[in-house]
Amino acid sequence: MWAPLRGGYPHRTLLLLRGNWMCRRGLPRSLVPGPPRRRYRKESLPALEVPVLPVTTTEIRQYLRAHGIPFQDGHSCLRAPSPFLGASPFKDQIGVTTSYSLFIDKTTGRFLCMTSLAEGSWEDFQASVEGQGDGAREGVLLSEAPEAEDSEEVRRIWDRAVPLWELPDPEEAQLAHLMFGLSKVTEDTLRRFSVRYLRSARSLVFPWFSPGGLGLRGLKLLGAEGQGNGVRYVETTIPRPGTYHNLFGLPLIGHRDFELVLTSRELDSLALSQSTGLPTLALPRGTACLPPALLPYLEQFRRIVLWLGDDLRSWEAAKLFARKLNPKRCSLLREEVLGELSNVDQAAGVRWSRFQDLNRLLKGHRKGELTVFTGPTGSGKTTFISEYALDLCTQGVNTLWGSFEIGNVRLARVMLTQFAVGRLEEQLDKYDEWADRFEDLPLYFMTFHGQQSIRTVISTMQHAVYVYDICHVVIDNLQFMMGHEQLSADRIAAQDYVIGAFRKFATDNNCHVTLVIHPRKEDDDKELQTASIFGSAKASQEADNVLILQDRKLVTGPGKRYLQVSKNRFDGDVGVFPLEFNKSSLTFSIPPKSKVRLKKIKDDNGLVAKKPSSGKKGAVPQNSEAGPGQASNPYQPDTPQPSR
């Protein structure tokens, strides 16, 4: 179910028909009897026939002045008198100056009334000002409360949880403090933040209260699991991630507080509040995302210290969040992060968990790069690139999909099958569990289909980067950007312009763009080369990475498909490695157990091609400095060598 909002922006609708199952983290769920035929949807960025152009800060100011509405310029929002105060049950209770309690996001135009909790798009606000939003004045736009099922579950878990200092067994209390590193956190700190402990799940319970602490709206449960000699923490949020956003510690913020420490973990908030005495807040999804809906709650602070971690991904998240918050008031408290930036492994980016051979060649997936991916028609380009992107998404890389060739429902079905590593049609009893886990991924879809204007697509991508902190955009495929470009009758020139636009977007937004491009028509017995990419050489020149899915259509069995990395700007390593398609799971990463990974193939002289080094597990790295034709390919000995 795909539901566009006014103004072309998305919201998430979940229609749940659950069967009986136990949550993977061991928490019982409220269940409704019935077959596992639950409809689900990922967040989508819909396309309108007449796209609504993004609003600018200048346009917002001009509109407010034209209608005689006074406003104050803030860090990330404009503050104005709210027209929704008549609908407020919380008026004068949450420490906000009611005369200027409406916050308007400078980037998107979305508004939030801190007094009535009314919110909506810029178009909603305009309709209300111009007398077309009577429903809004009556409170129709009030922030949605969690679903009834979630509210009941939140209350049930909260009532079962007990304060740590009230645990009847001293040994259990001591173990809990040890597992979660709370040995130096005092009872007074735990009491102020209302932290509890759920004994049945052995989890800390962090509450999310509505502004002013007027009601319990959600929970985050933090469980600890042993992993080798260390401890691995597992988070569970109710409501589900993405359906509701809040800040841990919000009721403790006073309207006279002007300095804040913003953390990625609730445990850090406890420790920092106790040690520094400063107000602290914890982000609901850690370093994954800073939802713009939370910006109004951070507007009052003149200085924000970002305490997000000491690795490269945390450093990048801090820079991204600072752009939203206004860099002039943000600072990074952990100076040791600078030392981590010299770590080569972290600088290489996020490593794939399913494609180890790809890690050996590309070293990782890095922000700000452009990857060009091509392959013959019918070779499985979309299937491969969906697993390639899904692998990164499961590791917390916020991903936006632009599938212009196949529908989102079909694509989501393929990705869900790949995620479950098996066809769920054959195991319907597990469908709900996998679908719920799939929904929790930071995965979003554009609902464009067919030919689109590059300007509209780029605008949607920029909106997604701001709202959802997107780090990876997949465009499938470039040819669907061509039909609306009237810049030149020359398709090659138009394609060069589109590629340049994606290159500029990747650099300006520090976001990785994976661009699928069809190749020129080649004979079935010839492998593709970098020069086979349709258009001019601009695609390969602008790209940081070039991946080619080779498909030997005249061959069956192992060795039929392999992936070639023909360009790698990061460190120059290029090469090939074999792929085997598993039809039952629609994956390339997990070969069937009954098949041999690779067979030796004789070349034209009758010689057996050398096996790849055992240390490379099938990957054959080559130096990108080698001249054309110098790179040997043990999987394609009877075809011309690819050019660089």
Could you walk me through the main structural features you see in this protein, from its secondary elements to its overall organization?
With 644 residues, this protein is α/β, with parallel strands linked by helices. 26% of the residues lie in helices and 18% in strands. The chain contains 17 helices and 23 strands. A ten-stranded mixed β-sheet has the order 1-17-16-18-19-15-20-21-22-23, sandwiched between helices. Helix 15 packs parallel to helix 16 (491-509). The longest helix has 19 residues, at 491-509.
As a percent range, the share of strand residues is 15-25%
Report low-confidence residues grouped into runs of 5 or more: 1-41, 46-51, 87-97, 133-144, 335-341, 592-617, 623-644
Morphology: globular
Report the strand count: 23
Main sheet properties: 10 strands, mixed
* Tally of contiguous helical segments: 17
